[in-house]
């Protein structure tokens, strides 16, 4: 079965530790949380899933492969010790980004939503049960572009573990059933353009998805 019946919001957080090392950045005190609208969802299990690049981005967007965490019941002010009991399952996701927009917005303190919230910018895999992924805190996330490996690392390297992400977010807003939390991306994220093919996966063969990139019609 495919992933989402009706997700009410999408959240994304910081990348893994390696990116901090590569950029010589200090560990942040807290996760960075932002919204993506549900209109960004693209069912990667559908025939020929296609990521559409908005014209305003000049034909180029960036890919970021991530583990997605799906909330199973209402969560408000939950502790890290309790947080994983609110998870119903997982998915593989791509967080596609208009990076030029983000690079312009970030130093000005402007919201990221227009760079993150375009249609088809969140391809998602089928639903992965908790039984299929008993240890989400140590699963390999990889991504190829046109057959070349670009990302390959473990969620063990996330700056903030999944339980901390859920707990932190639930202190500010109530998480509802089917909400999707994206957890962060490995090093190697980069640009793609029309004609490129993105293939990514979790673990060895737990789940894979393949999407093509095309310009907006």
From TrEMBL:
Residues 25-213 form the Fumarylacetoacetase-like C-terminal domain. The keyword Metal-binding applies. The keyword RNA-binding does not apply. Signal peptide: none annotated. It catalyses: oxaloacetate = enol-oxaloacetate. GO terms for cellular component: mitochondrion. Keywords: Metal-binding. Its EC number is 5.3.2.2. It is an enzyme of class 5 (isomerase). One of its GO terms (molecular function) is metal ion binding. Belongs to the FAH family. This is oxaloacetate tautomerase. It comes from Anopheles triannulatus. The lineage of its organism: Eukaryota, Metazoa, Ecdysozoa, Arthropoda, Hexapoda.
